[in-house]
Queue: 3 jobs
Job 1
Amino acid sequence: MNESLQESKEFEFEIDDAGLILELFGQFDENIKLIEEALGVTIISRDRRVKISGNNEGIKSAHKVIGRLMKLAEKGGKITPQSVGYAISLIGPSGQDIDEKSNDYYDIIFTTAKGKKIETRTMGQKEYAHSIRDNHITFAIGPAGTGKTYIAVALAVLAFKSKAVERIVLTRPAVEAGEKLGFLPGDLQEKINPYLRPLYDALYDFIGPDSCRKYLDRGIIEIAPLAYMRGRTLDNSFIILDEAQNTTSEQMKMFLTRLGIGSKAVITGDVTQVDLPKDKVSGVVEAQKILKGIKGIEFVELTHRDVVRHRVVEKIIEAYSRYEGK
């Protein structure tokens, strides 16, 4: 991208690759409209030239956002409304980077057998993936849609395929928003399966339903409610405790002490969505106070900025945070 930004109401620059311009603008110019709306500028393209009009700060910010998106595309990442929103969120009011490290958030962490790339899309996600690689136990705490479970399962499958571990164990507490297991139809396993469904979905995405069933039948992959972990020692395993905000203090201690030789654990949770009885303390909340500072254990906090679902999800999370803050 060739440019020489001036203190003026308009700024033009050239993008050498016409295909990148098409990707930048998006279908029906949806990506550019997001930048225009957020930064109060007008952006038009003619041939390979892009012109930004507006006030000086808006022009600087828009130019910075476009530059970041071009780098993302050049690395092989896709420019989506979510990535545009994230790029905008990293620009301060005067067009400066909020965090210089945030320029390098894109990282491919896994490629499926079908060639699908699983990548980090925010700096928080990249730090989370690195923490899992570098530590025995990683706690990922953050709102829905930040990729906590998805990234953990991707790295579990990667560790298994590279023979770093021999088994994958996925578990969740069978506690959900005010619902009781006894009211669900079927036997115990049929009652529990709906709570474990997100874990099955993630595995299917990475290794396919047929391979997943084969590994489940052979016990190489295990998906079970947290209560089934009691009394066990899990060696050479990659263990994921999902929805951990709904563990009690006793359950969290029980889970953490299952870790055996050659094993790694990831605990994910959203402390704003605890469904335990009012008199019960969340095991994740307590663990933050007890375990911080222990070598080999790291707490990664994700925020609304790391949400990679539909952009409206980020706005919903922000709105609830404001409301609950009052």
Note: Confidence is low (pLDDT under 50) at residues 177-181.
Job 2
Amino acid sequence: MNGTAHRHKKRFGQNFLRDRNIVERILSAAALDPGDRVVEIGPGMGALTDPMLSLAGEVHILEIDRELAARWRERPEANLRVHEGDALDLDWPRFLTTPPYKMVANLPYNISSQVLFKILDHRELFSRLVLMFQKEVGERLCAGPGSRDYGILSVLCQLWFDIRRVTPVKPGSFYPPPKVDSVVLSFEPLASARVPVEDWMGFRRTVKAAFGQRRKSLRNALTGGGWSVAQAEEALRASGIDPSRRAETLSLDEFARLSRQLGAPPSGRD
């Protein structure tokens, strides 16, 4: 972005990408063409945005920083759309009205997990996502059953997307440099859920409850989600799952079977 330097704001998790090699790898993974509509959360100084404005037909940027949003609104590009506000609070379907979109972003690390939950709720909007995360979060997203990194987001994202690593990113690729390594991942939506899921919210509720107390057995962890021990045991046995197992050992198919057997908790807890 042209103009005077912008002072980064720590409260917004601003670490501005400045490594052209990383930018090129991200754009290559996104495979943009003039017919594409793109969404970017946190454009910052435009390391990704500037080339995307040349490559894509329409670029929507979501910027919480009032000063940066004002500067982006001064840009002359006819294909730029500026949406000021918190990406977590903005009503995406209100302005993303002609899907599919590609999302390409260096996500602010302090909200990356919450953004993923919102993406999952609006997954029908996207044909591809290329996103940067703190390395630790990236490892969780790619982890499989039996790994200590396997968790809620691993299960929920792998249900709907093929996820692959694009490139590692070192702290020196940013200004100011973060204290952690990063990784870029691509998400390719599946035509349907990887395993049959009849009730998405029920599946999500089951996964959250199972990992809510991950050091406990499934029998005990599920009680934190509103089911009684007896109900948890009955559903687990009907699903062919040993009640003494822990959440990180279950496959996607086992979570799907368990959610079908559990149904909604009697307490009505979400």
Note: Residues 8-13 have pLDDT under 50 and may be disordered.
Job 3
Amino acid sequence: MDVVGGEVRIEVGCDGVQWAGGEGQRLHLHGDEQRQWRHPDTCQLQTIITAEVPRVLDPQTGKTQMVKVPWAEARSGWTLLFEHFAIRVRLGCATISDALKRLGIHWPQGQKIMAAAVERGLERRQLEAIPDVGLDKKSFQRGQDDISVMTDLLGERVLEVVGGRDRPAVLQLWE
């Protein structure tokens, strides 16, 4: 704990030298890589998890890949718990800037977290029979840019968004 620096560091170790692949084959250790992830704050101190993440050789592909850690997505700089917390903070704040300030992160980091959350939501989304859809156009950036939006009127959710407000945009939504 570094109270003056305002952070808590958690170091995770790994003793394994062999890893099991998808079909029970053994994957041999080919070194490791120092990684770190932002975690929700502890006692108002920024919490960072660090670990030497093993890299293993996949015998089927011949490629070296990092072992998946249970607390984060691949190549993410945040734990899943921090991402969940960040989305909850964003939903509770009036503006994105307010949320970023409360989380202590910058705009590109916030955008990356939101993009990952949207991607996970799209993977879980089921497009069952939707009886009523709505099409609308929205302007943003002082009316300079337009998007077309398709929504599920009964489920109250956005289904698709495309750039533009013309006929090709509407046709793209239907695809």
Note: The beta strands are 7-12, 18-20, 26-42, 45-57, 64-66, 133-140, 145-152, 157-163.
